[in-house]
Amino acid sequence: MSEQPSLDKPSDAPEPTPSAAPAGDRKPLLEVDNVTLRFGGVVALNQVNFTLYEGEILGLIGPNGAGKTTCFNAMTGVYTPTEGAIRFQGGKISGQQRFKITKMGIARTFQNIRLFPEMTALENIQVGADAHHRTSVPGALLRLPRHRREEKDGLKLAHDLLELVGIGGTEHEAARNLPYGSQRRLEIARALATRPKLLCLDEPAAGFNPAEKQDLMQLIKKIRDTGVTVLLIEHDMRLVMGVTDRIVVLEFGRKIAEGSPAEVAADPKVHAAYLGVPADAA
Ligand SMILES: Nc1ncnc2c1ncn2[C@@H]1O[C@H](COP(=O)(O)OP(=O)(O)OP(=O)(O)O)[C@@H](O)[C@H]1O
């Protein structure tokens, strides 16, 4: 079990960026509707409800084993909920195949880096961009105009994304030769290459030093400012409190709190979940 973080907002943490849309006219992007997910006798998610609104950065937090990754997996088609439904832009996506969910506009990164180590940074991103290509196999073999156009657009997008995530110039480096932090950034670029509306980041700061975490916060805000909604699983409270607009807290598969970073940090149920005691008794 990993060390549980303090919930106190650090005094030097940046104030959270306000949501892009004012509270009144927020549009739901993804709705987790009463989702239960069981693995045999283990109830990994228990009647979980929350909504992710367009343009926000939502944090999904909770102690180890709370159900955060299972929730991501249910959203991205790895698992089908035992009960309940997940809707994206109003349409049900739970139970859909993974590639269809990617095409609809949900991308993710993983807790453990999953790049193609022998491929270059550019090639890793192009794999992501292929999710939207419409060329048939014969079209690609014959190098028909649409295929050439898609290839050219994919290349431009890959260069732009490497710049965006801060590792421009690494195009022709094999992924395995990149420093750890650059590999994590490359994973984000590859996810963005699918042109998602929603980007799900699973512990993107794992293994980062404080300076790298600061840079990552800026990158997450920059990504949101390009119009991508972000869902973030992260154990580092300084990062979560500094970058998110709202936070959902899970414990033993149940949602125990939801609100602004300040509301969540002051919630006795959250303190009890992390520290085993209510805030005022801690
Ligand atoms: N494939 C699986 N088969 C059986 N049990 C599973 C499976 N995946 C997750 N679980 C169980 O579901 C519960 C929630 O796990 P999950 O990985 O979603 O938690 P988490 O909040 O992401 O934890 P962490 O912060 O440690 O990554 C745990 O009890 C876990 O052991």
From TrEMBL:
Region (Disordered): 1-27
PROSITE patterns: ABC_TRANSPORTER_2
Key word Nucleotide-binding present: yes
Keywords (A to Z) from UniProt: ATP-binding, Nucleotide-binding, Transport
One Gene Ontology biological process: D-alanine transmembrane transport
Residue ranges occupied by any ABC transporter domain in the UniProt entry: 30-277
Coiled-coil residue spans: none
InterPro entries (UniProt xref): AAA+_ATPase (IPR003593), ABC_AA/LPS_Transport (IPR051120), ABC_transporter-like_ATP-bd (IPR003439), BCA_ABC_TP_C (IPR032823), P-loop_NTPase (IPR027417)
Residue ranges crossing the lipid bilayer per the database entry: none
This protein's name: ABC transporter ATP-binding protein
A UniProt-annotated Pfam family: ABC_tran
GO cellular component: plasma membrane
GO MF term set: ATP binding; ATP hydrolysis activity; L-isoleucine transmembrane transporter activity; L-phenylalanine transmembrane transporter activity; L-valine transmembrane transporter activity
Matches recorded under SMART domains: AAA (SM00382)
Source organism of the structure: Virgisporangium aliadipatigenens
Top-rank lineage group of the source organism: Bacteria
